[in-house]
Specification:
It contains 3 helices and no strands. With 87 residues, it is mainly alpha-helical.
Length: 87
C-alpha cells in the first residue's frame, strides 16, 4: 500500500467514521485497481475475489491498525461495511 494512497495515514485513532471509510476505500481501490469504486459498491461486483478480500483485510490491519472480522460484514463487502466492522 502506497503512502500516497492513504494520504500518509498511519492509523485511525481519532478518525471519524467518514475518514475511516475513505481510508478503507483507498485500500479497496488500490487492491482492485479500480479508482472509481465507491464506498457502497460491492467488492465482488467489481472483480473482487476471496483473495483480494483477504488482501484488503490485511492492508487495513497493517496500514490502518484495523481489526476486521469477516463474519461481521453480513455477506456484503463494501468499504463502508469494512470500516463499520472495524474494531
Amino acid at each position: 500500500m502506497s503512502n500516497a494512497s492513504l494520504n500518509n495515514v498511519d492509523g485511525t485513532a481519532g478518525a471519524s467514521e467518514d475518514e475511516r471509510v475513505e481510508q478503507v476505500l483507498a485500500i479497496v481501490r488500490e487492491v482492485l485497481s479500480k479508482p472509481g469504486i465507491g464506498a457502497d459498491d460491492e467488492v465482488m461486483d467489481h472483480g473482487g475475489t476471496s483473495l483480494s478480500i483477504v488482501r484488503i483485510l490485511a492492508e487495513s490491519s497493517h496500514a490502518l491498525k484495523l481489526d476486521i472480522n469477516p463474519r461481521d460484514l453480513g455477506g456484503t463487502v463494501t468499504a463502508r461495511n469494512l470500516a463499520r466492522a472495524a474494531r
